[in-house]
Amino acid sequence: MKTDKLVLLLVVLLFVVVGMTAYLAYSNKASKTAAPAQNSPSAENAKKTAAPTTNKKYTEEEVAEAIEYCKNVDFIISSPCFGNIAAVLNDASICDNNLEYDLNGFCHSAVAMEQKNAEACKTLPQADKEKCYALVARVTADASVCDRIPVPYADLNAKDDCYREAARTAQDESICPKITDTWYKDWCYANVAVAKLDISICDRSSDQDAKDECWSNLAEAKSDLSICEAIAEAKNRDDCYIDLARSMKRSDLCDRLVARDYLKDNCYHSVAYYMKDPKICEKIADESYRENCVSWAE
């Protein structure tokens, strides 16, 4: 079960990366276009519809060019591409250009986030609506938005994940008990503990493994080796050292692994890659893996 959830998280992270790729592509596109006329009607209209977070004015020609650009990108990134334009202009009608490929209601959700308006999620299909509410809850730090997610859910953990997002943004661990799934609840406490840099919140975890994982996350956030050293369970302490070795770029922490000695090679490989230092690869026992490490680190 936990493996399935981790796979799901990787898929979500991939979608975020794709979205950021589209965002950067569109930003570069917009930066190369001509500046709008100061007093033109189109510039005035763009000024009125622009989101509060931007002072940029866009002419009708610039908007049309950006829309055309998004129409010609791969369909997988078309939704975040249109979503970025719609959010910047605070105009959900932009999403109508991509009705066929609006994956996960991304475009309409982007506008709802920009407006911080949960009402904008209501017209979306059930599965998209759940994701939209979660995104609005995250930017508003308002857990009551999550209460709008009806039962049954298209995503079994939609409401739980919504509460987790709201708790992290609000830095409020009192929201976490609203979560029914133990794994998501532990994740919630870990998120808030890291956000507040408060190790005492980890004590609310459901079991020792979850508590140790919370401590490990906090150790990485604070770059605090003493937190790893305080973890009693050897395998969990090793996991903490591995995370810290990578984030602090300290290969010497890999030497501390005791419960699963075979992970040392993975630890050295990871640190060598992040530091771009092939000399670290010399510590790897397996010859073929050592050669692979050098090719990645160079």
What would you say this structure looks like, in words?
- It is a single chain.
- The two termini are 37 Å apart.
- The radius of gyration is 23 Å and the shape is globular.
- The chain is built from 13 helices and no strands.
- The N terminus is likely disordered.
- With 298 residues, it is mainly alpha-helical.
- The chain is 60% helix and 0% strand.
Topology:
Layout: H1 2-31, H2 41-49, H3 60-71, H4 75-89, H5 106-115, H6 126-140, H7 158-170, H8 182-196, H9 208-222, H10 225-229, H11 234-248, H12 263-275, H13 287-297
Low-confidence stretches: 1-55
Question: What percent strand?
Answer: under 5%
> What share of residues is helical?
55-70%
Q: Based on helices, strands and strand pairing, what is the structural class?
A: mainly alpha
- Tell me the number of helical segments per DSSP (H or I, 4 or more residues long): 13
Q: Which overall shape is indicated by the principal axes computed on the Cα atoms? A: globular
Compact description:
This protein has 298 residues and is an all-alpha fold.
